[in-house]
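Re: folding output
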Amino acid sequence: MFSFFRRVKQEEYPEVEQVLSYVISLVAQPQELLEILAELKTKQQSTQMTRKAEYVQTYLTIEKFICTHQPPVTSAQFTPKSLHEAIGKVIQITTLPLFFRVVLLEGSLQLFTLYEDGVQNLTLQIINKFGLEKVKILVSAGVQGSILDKVPVDEHGVHFNELYHLAPTFSEKEVTKVFKNLLTALYEGDKELEGEKAALETAKTVFQATQFVYDEDLAYQFFLVIPDQVLEKEKVNFLNRQQLLNVLQQLNAEKVMAEESRQKNDALLESIGEGAFATDQEGKVIFVNRVTLEILGLQEFAMIGKHWSETVKTLDESGMPLPLEKNPIDIALKTKAKVTELRFCYLRSDGSSLPVAMTASAILTKDQVTGAMVVFRDMTREREIDREKTEFISIASHQLRTPIGSIKWNLEMLLKGYYGTVTPEMSKVVEQMRATNDHLLQLVNNLLDVSRIDQGRIKDQPVPTAIVPIIESIIKEVQVQADVRKITLTLKVDAAEAPTAVIDPQRFREVIENLLSNAIKYNLDAGKVDVHVSWNEKTIQISIKDTGMGIPQKDQAKIFGRFFRAENAAKQEPNGSGLGLFVVKSYVEEWGGKIWFESPVFTEKDGNDGEQSRGTCFYIEVPR
C-alpha cells in the first residue's frame, strides 16, 4: 500500500493521492481492505498507461468494498453516487487528472471526459504524423455545427477546458453523437493521408489504451463513438458480451418485479372478503386465499397441488354431485369462457353444504389457457331472503286471489242485470273495471306460478299429449283479438298426424296462449302470425313468428328474466307483469325441452334510437 502511494507521488498526482487517502479513511477494517488490494495483479510495466490503469483499478476496488460492505466510520451509508459527492467536498473533481476524472463524474460530463481522452490520443498521433494544420482542418470538418464548433487546436491537441461548463446542458445522446462525428472525421483523414491499414492500427491503439485504463462499462461507452468500420470484430464480441450482461441484469430486475407483483397480488386476493382460488391448465390448485379455507373448513396443504375437484366438492340444486363436465371451472378451462353460476353448493369438510355464487374465468397467456381463476361467495343469507320473499309472494297472492275473484263474479253479475238495469254509460265503466280486474287476477296467478317454481312446487303432470289440437283451439280463442287489428293467423303442420309430446297439457296451453297473445299484442296492424309444427325422431319443434316490433338487441339477453319487459313493449302495452316468459321458460325446461328466439336487427334512421329489430320468432322444442 505504501509503495503504491509513493508511486502516486512520483507521478506528481497529489489530487489522486488525496482521493485515495480519503476513501481509505472511510473504511473501518483497513486490514480487510489491504487483503483485497494484495489480490490485485501487480503490473510490472513502468509505462504511464499501466500506472494510470492501476490507480483507477485501486479506486474502483475500494469503492466497491465500501458500497458493498458499508463499513463507514460515520453513520452515512454510501452508494457510488453519494461517495462521489462526498469526494467532491474534499477535492475539486475537475482538477483531477483526466483519467481519474472520468471515473468520478456523472452523465454527460463523464462521457465528455472519456471521449476527450480518446480524441486527444488520436489527435496527438495524427499531429505527430502529418502536422498541426492538417489536424485543424480535420477537426473543423468534424465538429461543424456542434457544441465542439471552433474548438482551438495547437501542438498539444484539442482544447476542451473552455467547453466543460457547457457539457451538463447537453444530453448524453447529444454528446455521443458529436464525438462520434469528430472521431469519424479524424479516422477518415488518417486513412486518406496514411492509408486504411495505418488508420485502423492508430484507432486500435487508441481504443486499447482506453480499454486498458477503464472498466468494461466505460469501455462500452467508448465503443459507441468509434467509427462503424473500425474494430468491427472487437466491437461485435464486446457488444455481445455487454448485451448478455444487460439481458441478465434485465432478467434479474424482472424477476424481482415479478416477485413483488406476485406478493402484491397475493395480498390483494387475501384481503378480499370472498373466496378465491386459482388452478393451472390441468386444474391443479396453485393459489387459495384465507376466506376459501375458512368457508370450506380446509387447510392450505390439503388444496395446493391437488386437482380442484378433489377438495372443492360441488353439488347441484338437488344436492347431487355435479358432473365434472357441467362444472363452471371445467367449462372455463376447456372453452376459455367466463362462467357465472348462482345455483350450486359447495360441500364443506364437516359434510354440510353451502350455497354459493361462483364465477370461473380462464387465465389466458397469448390466447392459450394457462389456468382458471375462481371467485365465490356465501349465498346462505341471500337464499334465505329469497325463500322468505317467495313465501311472502305466495301467501299474499293466495290472500289476494279470493277477493279479486269475488270482485270478478260481482262485476259479471252486475253486467248481466242481476242488481238492476245497467245503462250504457254504466256498462262501459263496468267493462273497464272488469278488464282491469282480469289483468290483476292474471298478475296474481303469475305471481303464484313464480312462487311455486321457486319452491319446486309446480304441479306438473307430463303425459303423452297431442299438441296440434291444443294449438288449433287456442288459435280459435285468440282469433277475435287478432281480428280487431286485422292480424292474420296461420298454422302449418308438416304432416297430417303430428306425434304426441310428453308434456303437461294444461301447462302447454298456458305456454302457447302466452306466446300467441304476445305475438298479437306486439304486432303491427294488419300483420301476420305464423305457427309452424315440425318434428324428428326425438323432439317436436313449434315456432311462432310475428311481424311486430321485435326485441331490441340490448334487451334480448334479459327477455326471459323475472319482471323484465323490453322498453318498446312497455311503451306499446303498459299493462304487463314481465313474468309470462319467465313462467313459459320454466315450464318448457321442466319437461326437458328448451325455448329460444330470433329477432333480427337492422339500422333505421327514425329519429329515435336508430337501431331496432323488426319481427320475432319464438321456438319451443320438447321431447316426444
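--- second protein (sequence, then structure) ---
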Amino acid sequence: MTGRSDQDWRWLSTEAMAKAMGITVQAFNKQVREKGWRAEHHRAGKANPRGLWRPAGRGFVYHYRLLPAHLQVQWQARHQPAPPDPTADRKARRQVIARDEAWRFYDARTDAQKAVACRRLDILLKVEEAVMQGKRKEDALTEIGLEHGEGRSTIWKWYQLVAGIAKEDWLPHLINHHCGRRKTVEITPEAWEAFKTLYLREEEPTAAECHLRLKDLAAEHGWTIPSLKTMQRKIAREIDHRVIVLKRKGQEAYERLYPAERRDKSSLHALEVLNYDGHKLDLFVEWLKGSVSRAFLLAFQDVYSGMIVSWRLDTCENALGFRLAYCDCVTTHGIANIVSADNTMAAADKTNTGQSRYRRRFKIRDDDPVGVFQLIGTEVRFTKVRHGQSKPIERAFGTLARYISKAPECAGAYTGNNPLNKPANYGKRAIPLADLVPIVQREIDRFNNEPALNLANGQGRSRAEVFAESYAKAPIRTAHGMPEEKRRLLLLAAEGVTCRKPTGEVELHGNRYWHEALVGLIGKKVVLRFDPDKLHQPVHVYRLDGSFVCTAPVIVNSGYLSADDANTHGRAVRRWNKAGRDLAAVETTMSMRDVVALTPEPEAPTKPEAKVVRPMFGTAGALALKPAPADAAEPAATFDFAAFARGAALLRPVE
C-alpha cells in the first residue's frame, strides 16, 4: 500500500505486510500479538516519530522496519523514491552537504576514534532491534546499557546526536568531536619568523640548535618563546613537509617527493631502443702496459628485455669505448633504431653524436661532422641529466658491479664501494686485464640468463629469453645487410702512421701489418681503422684524404728454429717473386730490338750562314785578298786550305 506523499511508501497495510512476508494475514496478526508490535508505546506520532504502527482509516498500517532485514532492503529498493536533486531543493542541498561533511570528518579521525563510534552504533542498533522485538524503549535502553556498561542517559544522548538522520548516516555523527587540549603557549610573531629562518636552511640544523640561538635573540629583543617540544610540535603542525624538504634538503630531494614516471615497455621490441652508460668498477686492474687503475665497464642494454647486448672495459669513459661496444652489438645482433644516453662529455662526444637533435654538449656548429651513430642509421636521444631513473642500465649496474667486483678471482683487488668501506686487504693486488675479461663475461651471462622476477615483460623468464623471443619476430636490421664500409666507421682511427721502407708495412702497438697495395705508399702517412682489443685481426688502411686503400692482415712472427715457418715464408716469397715477374711480363709486350728498329736515322745538322763579315787588315789578310795569277791556277787539290782556314778564323760576325 502506497500513498500520495513520499513518506507513504514506508507504511504497509496488514494485507501488504503479510504478502511481503510471504505469510497469511492470520499468521501476521499472530506475530503482532506475540511480539507486542501494536503496543501503545510503539504507536507512531509526533511524540514518537519512530513508532511501528499507526491507525489508518478502519484498520492499521505498519512500518516496513517490521520486515526481515533482507525484505527491508528489497522493499526499500523497490518503493523508495529517488532522492531529490540537490541543485533543485535548497534544503536537500544543505542536507547533502552536511552529510558529506560528516563523513569527511569521520574519515579524517584515527582508528581509535572510529572504533568508539562503531561501538556506539552497535549499541543503538541493538536497542532498535529490541524495540522491534516488542520491548519498551526505556526498558531496552536500560537492559542494553547494563549489558555494555553504559548508562541509560548516555545512550539517550547518542540518540539525540542522530535525531532526524537516516540510519545509514548515523556512524559519522556518533564519532567523538573532542580533539584534546588546544591551548598553546604564546610566541612572539617575530620570534617564530626568526626560528623558521634559522631552521629552514640547507645546513639542516637541528631544532634544538635553532631553539638555543632563538633564546639569545629573545633575551635581546624581549620575545616570548615556548619550550623546544612546543616548537617541534608547531613545526609539524604549521610548516608543510614539502617546504621543509625543499628548504633543508634541496631541489633534487624535493623532486623525489613526486612519484616517478613508470614507462610501459610492452609496445617496444628487441633492439628497438638501447641505452648505454659507463660504470666505475670497484677493482684495481693491471692494464697491458703495466699501469694500475680502476676499470670502467661500458655497456649497451636493450630496453625492452633488459639484456646486456654488448660491453667493453676501459680505463675511463670515452667515445671510442662506447663506439667499439656498439660495434660489437652491430656485429652480433644488429643495428638499433634508437640509442639513449646521458649528456656527459664521453657519451655525447661529437664523433659519435654529432648533428643529433636536442644535443646540448660542446659548442654547436653548422660544420660539425655527422656522428657515427647518425651515419649508420641510429637515432640518438639524451636523457635527463643526473637522473638515473631515465636510464634502466643504472639498475643493471647495481647488480653487475657487485658480482664482478666481489668475484672470488678478484680477492685482494676489491677497493670497496666508498672510501669509508675499504676491505682489510685493500690494495693487496691488481687483477690483470686478461683475467678480468672472462669474469665480466661470466657475470654478464649470469645476469642475462637468470630469471628476472621484476622484469615487466619477463613473467618469470630470463632477460635473454625475452630478448630472443622478440628478436625472432621483430624487424631487425642485421649487420649482414650492412656495407663493410659502414662497419669500419665504428672502429678506432689512428692517424699519421707511416708506411715503412722498404716494404710499405705499417706498425701498430708492436704488430706489423702489410698488403701489396702498401708498396706504392712507401714513406707516406696513412690512417688505420682497427679494434684495439683485437690487434691480431686485419686493419683497414685509408689515405689521409679519407679514401680506402686496403685491409692489411697482421704479420705473425715465426719461431726462431721453426722449419715449417721458414718453409711457409719461403713459399710466400717465391709466390711474390713469380707474381712480380708475371706482372712485369704483362706490362712489357715489346722487345728492345723492336724499339731500336722503330728509331729513325738522325738528320745532318744544317750549318748557319753569317750575314755580315767583318774584314781583317794585315799581312795574312792582304795575302788572302790578293788574286792569284792566271797561269798559276791549279786544280782544287793544290788549293792552300791552311791559309784559308787561318783567314776564316779571323772573321767575326757583326753584333
